Amino acid sequence: MRIDIITVLPELLKSPFEASILKRAIEKDLVEVHLHNLRDYTTGNYKQVDDYQFGGGAGMVMMIEPIDKCISQLKSEREYDEVIYMTPDGKTLNQGMANEISMKKNIIVLCGHYKGVDQRVRDMFVTREISIGDYVLSGGELAAAILCDAVIRLLPGVLNDETSALTDTFQDNLLAPPVYTRPAEYKGMEVPKILLSGNFPKIEKWREQQALERTQERRPDLLEK
Ligand code: 6GU
Q1: Which of 21, 79, 108, 225 has its CA 20 to 30 A from that of 13?
Q2: Does the reported pTM lie above 0.85?
């Protein structure tokens, strides 16, 4: 998979890809992530990427021209399956969307800033608009990092047995059951006996039951789907 991220703040997006699982995935050539600074696609001396909105009102709007130049350049080099615009008025990201996007070959992720992009960018180029939740961030960069993390960890070969995505919370619309590690007793608090029993069919049943109870208590909305 190849991900091209278009942003006015590439520095903000560097570190997530230079640590941990995402770094390993890039080193193993399971994914390529390329950051594109929108200012490199401006004309004129001021490297202007935003301007006042027509009709008046507070807040700047990202201009279409540099975005067009950047996307057109990328599209001339390869075919893209999606152009994703990160925006608080997009569809809220969930595990199903992450699964879907992880099957794509080449995607562009456009990070919004200020009041967002000129509507014509959305009409002309964008195939999918994604939000990461009902709150406002100062830009789409951190949201893009979250999308990339959720997608990249699903790519074949990224996770090993220990970090397998199959038992993740949400993968089956259930929250994950509680987990424990050594010591079996800490300051009087004991690990549930069943987990020390070695009876694996019974342990599996207990985990399913715990997952169901947790979901009922914390996220009953997930069970209605
Ligand atoms: Cl994708 N962008 C911004 N600026 N704020 C957000 C968001 C995205 N998702 C939730 N809040």
Answers
A1: 79
A2: yes
